[in-house]
Amino acid sequence: MKQPVRKAILPVGGLGTRFLPATKAMPKEMLPVVDKPLIQYAVEEARAAGIEDIIFVTGRGKTAIEDHFDHSYELESTLAARGKTETLEELRSVLPEEGQFSYTRQQVPLGLGHAVWCARNLVGDEPFAVMLADDLVHAPTPCLKQMVEAYDEVGGNLVAVMDVPRAHTNRYGILDPGAERGRLVAIQGLVEKPAPEKAPSTLSIIGRYILQPAVFRHLSDRAPGAGGEIQLTDAMAKMIGKMPFHGYRFSGVRYDCGDKVGFLAANIALSLDRADLRDGIKSFIRSLDLNT
Ligand code: UTP
User: pLDDT tens digits, the chain, 292 residues: what are they?
Assistant: First the structure.
């Protein structure tokens, strides 16, 4: 029996420079896809996977995230006075039980690996998930739930993977893949942001991980990697061969919402999936002259 995955780290300490000026005074993770901020999709996915504790690794200017998951008494009483019971219920359903969410601060954004390391004392000695809210996965079975089910079978470390165009390998962590079994791909090597001609494959890691606490030991040497940042991929690579390590080809569509095209695509796709918006969006798209 594997130790269950009860905790998830949600790193939200990045600067979101690709979305400036939108992200000057607002965290990237609060950008809305249709009518929900990115971070709420991630929290809902974590809960659907049975996660009990969520640890946010925040930075300066990220207090809007804490406020989003707290009571807003003035707003709630106004909604109640106006009889907007449904909206009120929806807002309240997002709130955690007291003590379920913790926040720790990454004082300097030194990279994703460093952000994960900042949560080491809150995670302790147990397996945990890492979820990047800017990777939005639209799937009938939430991506992390699929992964937890696969993890129950294989244990060790598990990362969600998908094929990307070879020209894009320099944006992602890329696998050197071994044997495949169903949706599982054994990992022989990992490399962060390789040039297309040097990439060992086109299988890319997306922002969903289940990791063993041993990774904190490897992160503690704070060695900078690609782009001068402390990379999670480098620390994960040190665990290959020491415990099971698999890529998991999740079912669903991933939108890279840290990128403008991915973010806009997510808004269109998720609107088209909504009964109350579909017709309006379709008729707007049909009205566009797409040949220009
Ligand atoms: P990105 O590579 O997208 O960086 O981080 P970023 O700073 O958020 O955005 P850009 O590239 O400047 O536009 C991937 C994930 O890692 C987190 C981010 O919040 C995001 O969820 N991150 C990154 C941290 O928490 N801390 C860091 O030091 C770096």
Answer: 688 999 999 999 888 899 999 999 999 999 999 999 999 999 999 999 999 999 999 988 888 999 999 999 999 999 999 999 999 999 999 999 999 999 999 999 999 999 999 999 999 999 999 999 999 999 999 999 999 999 999 999 999 999 999 999 999 999 999 999 999 999 999 998 999 999 999 999 999 999 999 999 999 988 888 788 899 999 999 999 999 999 999 999 999 999 999 999 999 999 999 999 999 999 999 999 887 7
CA 14 to ligand 1 center in whole angstroms: 4
Cα gap 52→8, rounded to integer Å? 8
Please count the structural domains in the chain: 1
Contact 10, 54 (CB under 8 A): yes
Residue nearest to atom 27 of ligand 1 (CA): 111
Decide: helix, strand or coil at residue 270. Answer: helix
Ligand 1 center from residue 228 Cα (angstroms) = 13
- Tell whether 250 is covered by a domain: yes
Centroid of ligand 1 to alpha carbon of 258 (angstroms): 8
Write out the residue range of the structural domain in which residue 190 sits. 7-287
DSSP-assigned letter for residue 243: B
Q: Against a cut of 0.85, is the pTM above it?
A: yes
